[in-house]
Amino acid sequence: MSALNRFLGDTPLRVLLKLLVVSFLVGLVMNAFGWSPMDVLYGIRKFFLDLWNLGFRAVDRFLGYILLGAAIVVPAFILLRIANYRK
Predict the structure, then answer these.
(1) Where does the chain show beta strands of DSSP type E?
(2) Which of 24, 55, 64, 71 keeps 20 to 30 A from 6, CA to CA?
(3) What is the reported pTM?
(4) Is the pLDDT of residue 28 over 70?
């Protein structure tokens, strides 16, 4: 078996034929749904941007809870420390 056959996994002619058949089937499905290659790329890009924004939205919400709690806890802590300082 030659290096090219090992790299491709089969003879070049068979690989070409398989790629043509799969390309035809994928093109047929994409045409049926009205998709273009750019639609697929934009969809992938949008997926990762939404995932990125969702992660930062969760961090923002988490930090918001911490700041909201700190607005009560820190002054109470300071008042308790001042009250215990006199004793």
Answers:
(1) none
(2) 24
(3) 0.53
(4) yes
- The DSSP letter of residue 22 is H
3-state secondary structure of 24: helix
Angle at 56 between CA 52 and CA 57, to 5 degrees: 110
Angle (CA) 46-52-57 rounded to 5° is 120
Tokens of 15: 């690989």
Residue 11 contacts residue 4 (beta carbons within 8 Å)? no
Please say whether the dihedral angle defined by the alpha carbons of residues 28, 32, 38 and 42, taken in this order, is positive or negative: negative
pLDDT of residue 30: 92
List Cβ neighbours of 4 (8 Å cut-off, separation of 6 or more). Answer: 12
- Categorize the per-residue pLDDT at 87 as very low, low, confident or very high, splitting at 50, 70 and 90: low
DSSP 28: H
Instruction: To the nearest 10°, report the CA torsion of 15, 16, 21, 27.
Output: 120
